[in-house]
Design goal:
By secondary structure, this protein is α+β, with helices and mostly antiparallel strands. The protein has 2 domains: 88 residues, Glutaredoxin (3-Layer(aba) Sandwich), CATH 3.40.30; 110 residues, Up-down Bundle (Glutathione S-transferase Yfyf (Class Pi), Chain A, domain 2), CATH 1.20.1050. It has 9 helices and 6 strands. It starts with 9 loop residues before the first strand and ends in a 21-residue tail after the last helix. Bound molecules: glutathione.
C-alpha cells in the first residue's frame, strides 16, 4: 500500500492553514460514505458539521465550497479547490492512498470505475431524487407514480449489483478484495431501507449484497465511522434512522 499522505498546505474555508482533510457533513448524509472511506484508509481528518435543519448547506460560506449547496465537501491539503461529489472524492482518496481500489494497471480497474460511476450516477442519484420527489415534480397528482418508477429503477440497480457479485464470486463486488465500491453500495442499501422508500425494498431481495453488508459491519473502521455519524446498531442489515438535529431526510 502506498501511504502517500498529503504534504501540501492550503488555505481552508475558515482562512486557516489546512494541514488535514476537512470533511463537511451532516449525520447520515452522503458524507457517511466519505467518512467510512477516510476511516478505513486511516486518514486523519477534521469534521465540520453542517446543520441541514438550518439549511446551512445553502449559506454563502458553504456555497463557496460547493456551489450546488450539497453535502459532502472534502477540503484536501495540497489541492487548489474543495472537492465535492461523493464518487469523485472516493476515486481521489483511493488513488492517493493506493488502497480500496484496483491499481490503474489492474485488469479489474475498468470494472471498478464502471461500478463506481454506476453507483454515483445511477443508484445514488435515483435514490436522492426518490427522497424528495416534490423537488423534481411539483405536480402532486403524479408524485406517487414518479416515486414508484424511481423505486423500480432502484430495485433494478440492486439486482444488477447482485448479478455482478454472483459473477465475481464475491465476497465483495469486484471479487476477493474490499473496495470503496462496497462501502458506497452498503450506504445506498442502508438509505433505501430507512429513508423515503421505507418498507418498500428489502435487503433480503439481494442475499449476496446482504453478505457484503454483514462483512462490512464486522470492520472496526466502519463501525467507528458509523458511530461518529450518530448511527446506532447494525448500520446496513438492521438500519435505524439517525435522530439527531440536522437530519432532514
Ligand atoms: N451527487 C452528490 C449528491 C449529494 C447529495 O445529494 N447530498 C444531500 C445529502 S445526502 C444534500 O446535500 N442534501 C441537502 C439539500 O439537498 O439541500 C454527491 O454524490 O455528493
Amino acid at each position: 500500500m502506498n501511504q502517500c499522505l498529503p504534504s501540501g498546505h492550503d488555505q481552508g474555508a475558515s482562512g486557516t492553514t489546512l494541514t488535514r482533510y476537512r470533511l463537511h457533513g451532516s449525520p447520515d448524509s452522503a458524507n457517511l460514505v466519505v467518512r467510512m472511506v477516510l476511516e478505513e484508509l486511516g486518514a486523519a481528518y477534521d469534521y465540520v458539521p453542517v446543520d441541514r435543519a438550518a439549511a446551512q448547506q445553502k449559506s454563502r460560506a458553504y456555497l463557496d465550497l460547493n456551489p450546488q449547496g450539497l453535502i459532502p465537501v472534502l477540503e484536501v491539503p495540497g489541492q487548489d479547490a474543495p472537492l465535492f461529489e461523493t464518487g469523485a472524492i472516493l476515486l481521489f482518496l483511493c488513488d492517493r492512498y493506493g488502497a480500496l481500489a484496483p491499481e490503474a494497471t489492474s485488469p479489474a480497474r475498468g470494472r471498478y470505475l464502471k461500478w463506481l460511476f454506476f453507483l454515483s450516477n445511477t443508484l445514488h442519484s435515483d435514490l436522492r431524487i426518490s427522497f424528495k420527489v416534490e423537488r423534481y415534480l411539483p405536480d402532486e397528482t403524479r408524485q406517487q407514480l414518479f416515486a414508484d418508477t424511481l423505486l423500480g429503477r432502484i430495485a433494478a440497480a440492486f439486482r444488477h449489483l447482485e448479478a455482478e457479485l454472483d459473477a465475481s464470486g464475491g465476497p465483495f463486488l469486484l471479487g476477493r478484495e474490499l473496495t470503496c465500491v462496497d462501502i458506497y453500495l452498503a450506504a445506498c442499501a442502508r438509505w433505501t431501507q430507512i429513508y423515503g422508500n421505507k418498507g418498500r425494498w428489502d435487503l433480503a431481495a439481494t442475499p449476496l449484497l446482504r453478505g457484503v453488508c454483514e462483512r462490512l459491519e464486522e470492520r472496526a473502521a466502519l463501525r467507528r465511522a458509523c458511530e461518529r455519524e450518530g448511527i446506532e446498531g447494525l448500520p446496513f442489515t438492521e438500519p435505524k434512522p439517525v435522530s439527531l438535529a440536522g437530519v432532514t431526510d
